[in-house]
Amino acid sequence: MFTNSLKIMEDKPYFIKDNKPFFWLADTAWLIFANLTKEEAYIFLKNRADKGYNVIQAVLIYATEGMKDINKMPTKRYDCHKESYWQHVEEIIDMAKDLGLYMALVPTWGSLVKKDILNMDNLEEYINFLADRFGKKENVIWLIGGDIKAGPYVDLYNKMGRLFKEKNPDKLIGFHPFGRCSSSLWFKDADWLDFNMFQSGHRRYDQCQMGAWDDTSNQLSLFGEDNWRYVEFDHASSNRPTLDGEPSYEQILQGLHDDTQPYWQSREVRRYAYWSVFAGAAGHTYGDCSIIMFYDGSIDGVVYGAKDYWQKAMHHEGSGQMKHLKDLMESVDFTNGESRDDYLIEGQREKHDRIAVFASDDFLFAYNYLGKSYKLDTSAYIGKDIYYFNPATGIYSYIDKVKTDIYQYEQIPDYNGNTDTVLVIQ
């Protein structure tokens, strides 16, 4: 039975549900309401629920008629002014609940605010409508924003957040920001904000500043691929949970705009997940290029290099590998863990060489993307079991018990390109 008991822990930056730690594992299905039928939505939601996801991030109004030059992804449904559309939305939300899924709902994409379609004059009417219609749904989370830098619109989003909190005080509220930004840049003191979210984005280290339209001038948050830095950045300003709400999507062009560039693969998707979670994030959001828009080739739009129709992309391997991280975290009391670079005998390494260590008195996890050798201080774990854990398969491979104060991890031979490994001590 689904219960509406998702809350924030009082003393730690994590979620809790039914008095148990809740590990946020989401997928970005932005256009599920606009582009899928009810029957198609069930297929997708069932697939994700079976893979261990517990949150689906979706936008209620991505575009209105005449916005094709603004919102570029292919959009089938613009009839948000009709009751039939909102009945469609309601049926999908209820379907998600039956499958055990929360829906993190974005009221509108940020472009509607930029173009003054949603503004201070009509905001209250729209938010009251949403809060009244969906506020009693047990599986609703409000995720305002929608890929936008809030700076010029802080007053509007503060009003939106306060209205939702007044109308639906039992609902959690977050803010989905623009790429290479975090909600904490604008709302670190907002009393309506329950958790932070950052968008580490889709660029490589060397694409951090491309001179493209979507560059951000905020130097505070230009971390390249180091999405773990956003966790540190957010935790430095508050004790709220934080998570990467939009990392590089599986099978999307690196940098988004240039079709001569390679695609992000599942191994890189895993890296973003383990790096941020082992830095103390309260969960993670996965995404796939074809799934965000439910690409089927039927209408025109910018598709960021999407190659597969969504029915095929639904089975991309990265989507099934996120559950291994969730299962690993739920095998321990992860709310007692913290980042522990100090356990690395030779110190932390930079960029892809990073060894992400997350530990408590009872366990230690060390994620190694490139699989290179390193040394760990294991003096606090003598007698505990030690394993290799494969993030691509979820398989544990027993090594031995910890017998010495220093453990030397030796690189494992790799024959398939998946070099990443987690060393697990429990």
Automatic annotation (TrEMBL):
Matching InterPro entries: Apiosidase-like_cat_dom (IPR025277), Collagen-bd_put (IPR024749), GH (IPR017853)
Gene3D superfamilies linked: Glycosidases (3.20.20.80)
Transmembrane annotation, as ranges: none
Domain Putative collagen-binding: residue ranges: 344-426
Domain Apiosidase-like catalytic: 14-335
SUPFAM superfamilies on file: (Trans)glycosidases
Name used for this protein in its record: Putative collagen-binding domain of a collagenase
Species name: Lachnospira pectinoschiza
